[in-house]
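help with these C-alpha cells:
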Amino acid sequence: MDYFAIAIGISTGGPRTIYDVLPKLPAELNAAIFLVQHIPPQFTKTYAERLDANCELKVVEAQDDMEIKPGYVYVGRGGYHLKVRKGLKSANIHLSKTPQHLFMPSVNIMMDSVLSAFGNKTIGVLMTGMGNDGAKSMVKIKNLVVTQ
C-alpha cells in the first residue's frame, strides 16, 4: 500500500476533542485514519455522520469487509473490535467480537492490527482519557518506526 495509516484512540472527552484535529486535515491526505472511541454502540453511527459533516475527509462507521482507502476515517463500531486485513493489493476492515476485552472496540487491538498491515507506515495517536488502552501498542509503533 502506498499510503499511511493513522491509528487514533480516544475516550473520555473525545467527542469534543477530536473536532480539534479531524476537521483540520485535508481531503487529499495520503492516509487512512482508524478511530476507536470509547462510546456506547448505539452512538457510533451518528458520531461518524456528525464528524463527516464537519470534515474534508470522508468519515464512515466501519463496516465488515469495507475496502480501506486513503482520505477516509473509519470509526470503530461500538461493540466490535476494528481490525485490518491486508490483502495482496488492498486492505479491508474486519469487525470482530473476539477476543473479549474490557473495551470493545479496543485501541490496543485496533493499533496492533493496523501496525501489522501497514508496518512502518503506521502513525499512532492517543488522546483523552484512555487509561492504558493503546499504551502497549503505541510502544510497538514507536519501536518499529525507530528501528526502521
Notes: The CA atoms of residues 6 and 123 lie 5 Å apart. The first strand starts at residue 4 and ends at 10.
